[in-house]
Specification:
Elements: H1 5-21, E1 26-34, E2 37-44, H2 49-67, E3 86-88, E4 93-96, E5 112-113, E6 118-124, E7 127-132, E8 137-142, E9 149-150, E10 155-159
Antiparallel strand pairs: 1-2, 3-10, 4-6, 4-9, 5-8, 6-7, 8-10
Length: 160
């Protein structure tokens, strides 16, 4: 680490501002000052993709409630992660709905699955992870598309 700590702190603060201003989740920078003297910085922020995805659908039902009669029941949040049949991603990676390009998807909406059936594959660090069904039932919703980047805990589909 370089001995010029004040300028390094200012540099790191500038990176954090750049991260926020450009809606980035991570920056990695290596500054080399000379032989055996460098600053290696990784600035990241934890994001909850589920909350960002869930925020949009909640706005539309709220408008419907405002125009509904006072006796209408309250609208319940449609956050997929709250659903008891939600299948969360066990890893961060890229989701694939089929075993290989051009092959049939493992499941589709309406598919009957039994516990342990492969629902999809998530590639993480060059490893193909088969995602098993946690329970038997019917696939009601698929919340991602083939090739999507997924986060840990992000709901992938709903099985009832």
């Amino acid at each position: 680490m370089t001995k010029n700590h004040d300028s390094d702190v200012a540099f790191i603060k500038a990176l954090a501002e750049l991260l926020n201003e450009n809606d980035l989740t991570e920056l990695h920078v290596k500054r080399e000052y000379g032989d055996d003297d460098c600053l290696n910085v990784r600035v990241s922020k934890q994001t909850n993709v589920v909350a960002a995805v869930a925020a949009a659908p909640v706005a539309a039902p709220a408008a419907a409630v405002a125009s509904a009669p006072a006796s209408a029941p309250a609208v319940v949040s449609e956050d997929p992660s709250d659903h008891p049949g939600a299948v969360p991603s066990p890893v961060v990676g890229t989701a694939y709905m089929a075993a290989e390009p051009g092959a049939a998807n493992f499941v589709s909406v309406g598919s009957k699955v039994t516990e342990g059936d492969t629902l999809m594959i998530i590639e993480a660090m060059k490893t193909m992870n088969h995602i098993p069904s946690p329970a038997s039932g019917t696939v009601k919703r698929i919340l991602i598309t083939d090739g999507d980047a997924v986060e840990y805990g992000q709901p992938l589909m709903i099985i009832e």
